[in-house]
Amino acid sequence: MKNTMQFDFIVDKEKNTITVNREFAAGRQLVWDCHTKSELLDKWFAPKPFTARTKSMSFKEGGSWIYAMVDPEGQEFWARMDYTKINPIDGYSLLDGFCNKDGELNPELPRARWVATFKDLNQNTLVQTVVTYNSLADLETVINMGMKEGLTMTLENLDDLLLTLKK
């Protein structure tokens, strides 16, 4: 069945941003929990056939999430999110980047600022994420790495997980 939920992926090359508007068929608290708890993130935060695996997570301002996206052969691709602002169930801001297994950032790959907001939309939830890169070159790097395709698959994983969690 085709997903009829809102999904916008808007690239603004003048502002070096990607804006993602994504609707989920679940209440805001549950969608928030899926974005902020490592045991739930590990169940959806990677495009198929990859899986996510948390090394460490401290969801608080100044905290971070270090995780790997693991391919079917076991190869790990590490990333980290550093939380800069948290407003429970309404939104958060963070800096993301690629890193090694120890959480040391890879300076060769782009880092971005993410601002995510969560809004009630009838019985559903709308999550808007604005991702800002330092330069057009950084923005184009992640687009060429397949960010839209990977994010589309990843958010579909969240749809599937929410179906199992809703009562």
Brief sketch in words of this structure:
The chain has 167 residues and is α+β, with helices and mostly antiparallel strands.
Structure description:
By secondary structure, this protein is of the alpha+beta class. The protein has one domain: START domain (Alpha-D-Glucose-1,6-Bisphosphate, Chain A, domain 4), CATH 3.30.530. The protein has helices at residues 28-36, 38-41, 136-144, 147-165, and strands spanning 7-12, 17-24, 51-57, 64-70, 76-87, 91-98, 112-121, 124-133. It has an 8-stranded antiparallel sheet. Strand 4 and strand 5 (76-87) form a beta hairpin. The mean pLDDT is 95.
Primary descriptors:
167 residues, Alpha-D-Glucose-1,6-Bisphosphate, Chain A, domain 4
List strands and helices in order, with pairings:
Blueprint: E1 7-12, E2 17-24, H1 28-36, H2 38-41, E3 51-57, E4 64-70, E5 76-87, E6 91-98, E7 112-121, E8 124-133, H3 136-144, H4 147-165
Antiparallel strand pairs: 1-2, 2-8, 3-4, 4-5, 5-6, 6-7, 7-8
How far apart are the first and last residues' alpha carbons, in Å?
21 Å
Query: What share of residues is helical?
Result: 10-25%
Mean residue pLDDT:
95
Q: Class in CATH?
A: Alpha Beta
CATH topology: Alpha-D-Glucose-1,6-Bisphosphate, Chain A, domain 4
Domain Activator of Hsp90 ATPase homologue 1/2-like C-terminal: 28-162
InterPro entries: ASHA1/2-like_C, START-like_dom_sf
Family: Belongs to the AHA1 family.
Organism: Chryseosolibacter histidini
